[in-house]
């Protein structure tokens, strides 16, 4: 992460209203405080935030309590990276060049390795070998994934709640992007072969309702594939309240693998794959270092050292997942809508 988010913190923004959210959406348990006084060091949203944890050993998810009102949450994106493009100085350009060199070196060193394979498969959310059909991406962001899948023969459609993002994707790639939440767009049922969501579920007020709508629009036998930050990941264990994955107030719910699977099953999905990923964790480690060195704090080491350390920690995290698969930065979930009522549960690789 560059200093963009920390610069944005100086910009005035509207206050976000909030309401109590005491219960776990998965199991109904009362949350216990995990962090208090969290601030948005990425984009400078006013206020401080409290995050609680479900005490249930079979759940363990995190959420904001109180939680921003849905009508106000758009304010937290006013200076988010999807809306702002600040000029970078020579120092930041040098850091970007160093990061790019580390990325290139990692690709060369990881040829034939499990981590390299994970990175390549993640580019297409692990569905590159599926027979092309109709694909819907909820929260399409940059549009690169949809453009990649279109090149592989898929008929693609995207959604995003952010008009500025949708406009850029249309202009850059000529892709069809609808603006709004999935339920608000009223897509026909049984319409898509694959529904993809990358780093979306943590941003929504009602993940259960969103998963239910995903189930509705998929055809029988269709597949849901998604990624979301992992509350049990190694980066969270290292950085605690400074972990980039917390991202208050935009990240409302942060799942554990077990909690996510339970939600998906309650929506009707049969689990095919449940695993954690380390392929994109270098940026999380670097951003977490930056959050820990927020304005007013003492810097621990140089920014160049932070870049190098982030790539080393990415590799160490992947090695740790070989011993304990729950330690990856992100959760990957793939589930299938049953082909017919009463179909046997379909399972797949879970490594």
Specify the CATH architecture.
3-Layer(aba) Sandwich
Number of domains: 1
Order of helices and strands: HEEEEEHHEHEHEHEHEHEHEHHE
SS-derived structural category: alpha/beta
Q: Helicity level, as a percent range?
A: 25-40%
The level 1 CATH classification is Alpha Beta
Mean pLDDT: 88
Total beta strand runs: 13
Oligomer: single chain
Main sheet summary = 7 strands, mixed
Low-confidence stretches: 1-12, 83-87, 342-351
Gap between N and C termini: 29 Å
Strand content: 15-25%
The helix count comes to: 11
In the CATH scheme, what's the topology name? Answer: Rossmann fold
Radius of gyration: 20 Å
Topology overview:
Blueprint: H1 4-8, E1 18-19, E2 32-38, E3 49-53, E4 62-64, E5 67-68, H2 90-109, H3 114-122, E6 134-138, H4 144-151, E7 155-160, H5 163-173, E8 177-179, H6 182-185, E9 192-198, H7 207-217, E10 218-229, H8 234-239, E11 253-254, H9 257-266, E12 270-277, H10 281-292, H11 303-323, E13 330-336
Parallel strand pairs: 6-7, 6-9, 7-8, 9-10
Antiparallel strand pairs: 1-5, 2-3, 3-4, 4-11, 10-13, 12-13
Structure commentary:
By secondary structure, this protein is α/β, with parallel strands linked by helices. The protein has one domain (4-122, 188-336): Rossmann fold (3-Layer(aba) Sandwich), CATH 3.40.50. Helix content is 33%, strand content 20%. The protein has eleven helices and 13 strands. The protein has helices at residues 4-8, 90-109, 114-122, 144-151, 163-173, 182-185, 207-217, 234-239, 257-266, 281-292, 303-323; strands spanning 18-19, 32-38, 49-53, 62-64, 67-68, 134-138, 155-160, 177-179, 192-198, 218-229, 253-254, 270-277, 330-336. Helix 2 runs parallel beside helix 11 (303-323) and helix 10 packs across helix 11 (303-323). It starts with a helix and ends in a 15-residue tail after the last strand.
């Amino acid at each position: 992460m560059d200093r963009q988010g920390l610069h944005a913190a100086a910009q005035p923004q509207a206050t976000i209203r909030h309401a109590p959210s005491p219960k776990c959406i998965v199991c109904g348990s009362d949350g216990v405080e995990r962090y208090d006084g969290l601030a948005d060091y990425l984009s400078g949203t006013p206020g401080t935030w409290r995050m609680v944890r479900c005490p249930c050993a079979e759940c363990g998810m995190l959420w904001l309590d109180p939680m921003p009102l849905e009508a106000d949450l758009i304010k937290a994106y006013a200076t988010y990276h999807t809306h702002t493009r600040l000029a970078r100085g020579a120092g930041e350009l040098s850091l970007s060049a160093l990061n790019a060199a580390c990325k290139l070196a990692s690709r060369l060193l990881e040829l034939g390795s499990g981590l390299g394979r994970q990175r390549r498969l993640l580019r297409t959310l692990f569905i590159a070998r599926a027979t092309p059909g109709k694909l819907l991406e909820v929260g399409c962001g940059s549009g690169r994934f949809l453009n990649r899948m279109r090149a592989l023969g898929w008929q693609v459609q995207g959604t995003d709640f952010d008009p500025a993002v949708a406009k850029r994707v249309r202009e850059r790639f000529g892709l069809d992007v609808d603006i709004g939440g999935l339920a608000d767009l009223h897509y026909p049922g049984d319409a898509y072969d694959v529904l993809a969501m990358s780093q979306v579920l943590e941003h929504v007020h009602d993940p259960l309702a969103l998963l239910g709508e995903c189930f509705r629009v998929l055809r029988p036998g269709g597949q849901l594939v998604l990624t979301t930050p992992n509350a049990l990941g190694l980066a969270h264990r290292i950085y605690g309240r400074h972990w980039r994955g917390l991202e208050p107030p935009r990240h409302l719910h942060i799942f554990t693998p077990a909690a996510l699977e339970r939600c998906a099953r309650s929506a009707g999905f049969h689990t095919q794959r449940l695993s954690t990923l380390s392929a994109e964790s270098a940026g999380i480690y670097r951003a977490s270092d930056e959050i820990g060195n927020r304005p007013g704090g003492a810097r621990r080491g140089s920014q160049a050292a932070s870049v190098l350390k982030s790539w080393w920690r990415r590799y160490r995290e992947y090695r740790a997942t070989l011993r304990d698969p729950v330690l990856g930065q992100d959760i990957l979930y793939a589930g299938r809508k049953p082909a017919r009522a009463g179909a046997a549960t379909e399972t797949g690789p879970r490594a």
